[in-house]
Amino acid sequence: MLRVGIVGVGTVGASVARILIENSDIISARSGKKIVPVLGIVRDASKNRGVVIPLSTNVDDVLENDEIDVVVELMGGVDRAFAVIKKALKNGKSVVTANKALLAYHRYELQESAVGVSIGFEASVAGGIPIIKALREGLSANHINSIKGIMNGTCNFILTKMMREKVDFQTVLKEAQALGYAEADPTFDVGGFDAAHKLLILASIAYGIDAKPEDILIEGIESISIEDILFAQEFGYSIKHLTIAKKNNDGTVELRVHPSLIPNSQMIAKVDGVMNAISVVGDRVGESMYYGAGAGGDATASAVIADLIDIARDGQNSPMLGFKKTLETQSLALMNSDEIITKYYIRMKVIDKIGVLASIATILGKHAISIDSFLQKADTHNKNYATLLFSTHICREKDIQDALIELKELPFSVQKPVMIRIED
Amino acid sequence: MLRVGIVGVGTVGASVARILIENSDIISARSGKKIVPVLGIVRDASKNRGVVIPLSTNVDDVLENDEIDVVVELMGGVDRAFAVIKKALKNGKSVVTANKALLAYHRYELQESAVGVSIGFEASVAGGIPIIKALREGLSANHINSIKGIMNGTCNFILTKMMREKVDFQTVLKEAQALGYAEADPTFDVGGFDAAHKLLILASIAYGIDAKPEDILIEGIESISIEDILFAQEFGYSIKHLTIAKKNNDGTVELRVHPSLIPNSQMIAKVDGVMNAISVVGDRVGESMYYGAGAGGDATASAVIADLIDIARDGQNSPMLGFKKTLETQSLALMNSDEIITKYYIRMKVIDKIGVLASIATILGKHAISIDSFLQKADTHNKNYATLLFSTHICREKDIQDALIELKELPFSVQKPVMIRIED
User: Fold this and answer.
1) Active site residue A198
2) Domain A134-293+329-334 belongs to what topology?
3) Which residue of B has its CA nearest to A122?
4) Whose CA is closest to A320, among A81, A72, A129, A135?
5) Residue B251: which pLDDT band, with cuts at 50, 70 and 90?
6) Taking chain A, what is the end-to-end CA distance rounded to the nearest angstrom?
7) What ranges do the domains of chain B cover?
8) Given an 8 Å threshold on Cβ–Cβ distance, is B285 in contact with A270?
9) Which of A154, A250, B2, B325 has the CB geometry, 3.0–4.6 Å to A189, for a possible disulfide?
10) pLDDT tens per residue across span A301-325
11) Which of A124, A123, A84 is nearest to A101 (CA)?
């Protein structure tokens, strides 16, 4: 028997307790023993959570309890959760966590602290998709060339709606909030931070990189407009919010999170609505893609319980993060974002007069940027304005950023130019 | 150090040896030890295989060799391979195999024989997709509601070409043979047998069912025509060769392999060319889908080596087939194919005269089958003939089969009717 304490009995915690009880037939058949939720820790014990397990408000009732083998941490937040997990590990308990923010900052310290016990965190990235296991074990014979993921359901729901119905960002955001797909303060999701946390976790498993959120390029979807959607559709692209990890020939790894134009022919361009998907290219296996629900109580709980079953099966044998940190095993360094090489799409709103195009072309030429396709649209609200949409051949991020500053300062530019990277 | 003997050094075996050597950096970082291919067994030692490992023609040089920890079986065939693996297990060696035909018949005997050693078989189903691990471990908290897979690259290549270019089966088959995507005798692939072997392996992990190929419904793609493709496109479907495992409310499981009409909106309908994909619905996690290369030396070798790394990480803890056979754990029985309930599409070629439709409708009505959509096309070759294409509402397989016999015997029917099941 494996006895489990659940710290934090919200939506996911309640699902974990319920599924452990309701699916106990298949869970014990697969793990070879019973897995029993014995105690839940909550802040307010009087609230009805629809679970039948005993509750306490004192976390030490789990952490100091010799009858409990595994601590499931679902309280969220960074500092207090970190303290709880460290105490659990110190007391000889294995830990299963869904806490991506904690892992984005402290995953290597946790790996070091887990001596003789396991830490499972499949639920921290795209709950309904066993991507951690796929990367850490299924593709373990491969050097990973790249990971491209749609890892935030809120962003994908909004972008899918915008593409299908040609409605602007703010309108769809309100709808997403009404449906419960976006929070009242949506910044964490639509600003790209949630996806960035997940990318950092996967990048550790693929590359052993110990980057933090503030080390990498993170952009959200707030500035995507209907014009961008129309341009994308005109040229056979979808706009998706992508997390990208890519190994370059010089041995550096680029990590970035931003909206991207992707050709419609790619499988990942076909992933719509709140669904998540992660495309991984290994040097031997080629491309594989993993698709499923990224959030939701039961999908996340399914991943938590898969980790519990692994622990019940006599421990997780593979190292928590696949292998140790960079320095000790491989020599992969995080690439400076300035060095990104890709294609770009740029949207500008300008006063429609002679000489505009020549000025823009001069700036682009100066920064060694050449244009691939170009579209000009009259502004529907003000006939003196025009919208210019263009994509570039491959060039350097630094050059684009420098050019964008100059483009913004052109006297006829009436709005900050918007840039979206293109992933071919 | 984990020392490996490879029995059968063809395309996959040579890839295994090469990747173990070329990717030894990442493989030892992930597994915590070196994995070394020490000997390969071949029938003809004089043939150049482009591998640097020593070769022998005597399989006992591996099986009776105390220096070898794991036997990789890549010889193919059923009986001899079975004997080789049993001897390896008896001699205390773990085994990794890609042999789906062997597993389709003897997987439970192998599970019984593996005492204190492991058997890895990730490479036996869709090499480039870690689906065995996903089902056995990643989704282990779930009762599996259904598995729908595109598991034969040859079939998917042919059907994709037929859909895109409106070319008939025989023409595309020849092209596939020229490209090396189909064998000179293509029956094993296009007849559905290869996919059936894979389905039986997955069905054991999901349901603990010990069915053999001859117990289940297996149909190939040989009778799909351009008319079927056109009907599918007219009504928003793709035609895919699907392997289906589905648990019914009465606790039985249906296992079947056949071409299917699938709505274009489903993710699995978007999987084209030689690629494989498997959609799994769990009772808690909902749908997840796994996409990648199904064949190829390096993709298959990648799966073989993932199993070796699991073994190097101190053994595979999860039971070989997820859990034991049906009787001992769950009470799932294989459903009789007659009881399948689904929608059907039927194509008939008839002499175009008054009363034809009435006769057909009478037969269908007698068998409680009602028509959903209907299309009649004039025959381009013979103006006296017409092609009738129609789909039904849901009905019973037995009723359709009985009706098909009567439809075939109608005096104005000039060709055996073709039936394709619809998976909504």
Assistant:
1) yes
2) Dihydrodipicolinate Reductase; domain 2 (3.30.360)
3) B138
4) A135
5) confident
6) 50
7) 2-130+298-324, 134-293+329-334, 340-422
8) no
9) A154
10) 999 999 999 999 876 556 677 666 5
11) A124
Q: What is the pLDDT of residue A320?
A: 74
Whole-complex ipTM: 0.91
pLDDT attached to residue A51? 80
pLDDT at A328: 46
pTM of the model: 0.92
Calculate how close chain A gets to B70, using CA atoms only, in Å: 16
- Average pLDDT of chain A? 92
Contact B283 A134 (CB under 8 A): no
Q: Which residue of B has its CA nearest to A314?
A: B317
Nearest by CB to residue B133, choosing from A137, A208, A322, is A137
Q: Verify whether the Cβ–Cβ distance A138 to B133 is below 8 Å.
A: yes
Residues B72 and B38: their CA atoms lie apart, in Å, by 11
Question: Are the Cβ atoms of B317 and A319 closer than 8 angstroms?
Answer: no
Per-residue pLDDT band at A261 (split at 50, 70, 90): very high
The yes-or-no verdict on residue B184 having pLDDT over 50 is yes
Q: Are A167 and A202 in contact (CB under 8 A)?
A: no
Enclosing H/E stretch for A255? strand A252-263
CA dihedral sign of residues B243, B111, B21, B65: negative
List chain A residues with CB under 8 Å of B319.
30, 32
Residue of A nearest to B18 (CA): A284
For domain A340-422, give the fold. Answer: Alpha-Beta Plaits (3.30.70)
Structural Rg of chain B based on CA atoms: 24
Does the beta-carbon distance from B31 to A140 stay under 8 Å? Answer: yes
Type of residue numbered B406? E
For A20-24, the CB contacts below 8 A with 24+ separation are: A20/A305, A20/A308, A21/A52, A23/A305, A23/B141, A23/B142, A23/B143, A23/B283, A23/B284
CATH architecture for the domain at B2-130+298-324: 3-Layer(aba) Sandwich (3.40)
Q: Choosing among B284, B300, B324, B325, which should be mutated to test the A contact, i.e. which has the most A CBs within 10 A?
A: B284
Domain A2-127+298-328 CATH superfamily:
NAD(P)-binding Rossmann-like Domain (3.40.50.720)
Closest Cα of chain B to A49: distance in Å?
A: 19
CB contact under 8 A, A133 and B133: yes
